[in-house]
Amino acid sequence: xxxxxxxxxxxxxxxxxxxxxxxxxxxxxxxxxxxxxxxxxxxxxxxxxxxxxxxxxxxxxxxxxxxxxxxxxxxxxxxxxxxxxxxxxxxxxxxxxxxxxxxxxxxxxxxxxxxxxxxxxxxxxxxxxxxxxxxxxxxxxxxxxxxxxxxxxxxxxxxxxxxxxxxxxxxxxxxxxxxxxxxxxxxxxxxxxxxxxxxxxxxxxxxxxxxxxxxxxxxxxxxxxxxxxxxxxxxxxxxxxxxxxxxxxxxxxxxxxxxxxxxxxxxxxxxxxxxxxxxxxxxxxxxxxxxxxxxxxxxxxxxxxxxxxxxxxxxxxxxxxxxxxxxxxxxxxxxxxxxxxxxx
Length: 344
Fold this sequence. Notes:
This protein has eight helices and 17 strands. The chain is α/β, with parallel strands linked by helices. The chain has two domains: about 5-55, no CATH class; about 65-305, Aldolase class I (TIM Barrel). Helix 7 packs parallel to helix 8 (about 275-290). It is globular and about 65 Å long. The model is unreliable at about 5-10 (pLDDT under 50).
């Protein structure tokens, strides 16, 4: 047993989705399928083999609690203009070269100095601040699955919505089990080439696409984000392939956020994405038939706003993460009465 965990035993919470193995325990939460001997933690750094049972170090152990605009997630068609309580724990099951939150995602929960915060504490905080939702974000919520699920259950019981911001590198069963508790999810689709995906994040594109298909068939509101990184995810042919896949698989009305890259983490040597490249993406997505495409991290561009797909009337105006106006009534454009899919 690793000595650093001695004294923390009372904080351990039994994890879900694992089985005893020939040399320890086998985790089935995500496609990494970690096989852990006594005292070992998974690639995510949050799941530990303690006396041949799998426990989570992330239980009641957040590293960040903040109030954000829902547009920051980004979600543009879900509770527009509202604030959300954002929480996260340390850890991640990806190794993204561009991670902006690597100081919390690439370390274990036992390094955290925040005091214990229970699911009831989180929900009470949200209610005290008159918020409508709780968001699981900043790091990868898949790796604090049990904590997220417990908070989400209590949130739902108290009339709060649950939002997940995720790369959805997760196996189908735990995802399907979780989705009934999640009202909205923004999926980080990092690229549309298997080799690039592996190089950029250390995980498989195929698994992420499977998760997207599962989410689309659920009752969970979905939006997708793609960070456009020079030399990785900015290839116009790959972007067109992505857009055509989304269109042909039923995601044509799903809001898609293409975000401008700025140097970060292990890609600090790269330049920001050229503005011209970002705006050219709208031509590609429009040709492919995607109806709600947004350009993020590029202040002042018109693709921060929402337009009626039928008549072209602007129905929601934004400046960055701030909603300036919203003319929709029950999702209807007041100019032509066309329905814009939105949860208000």
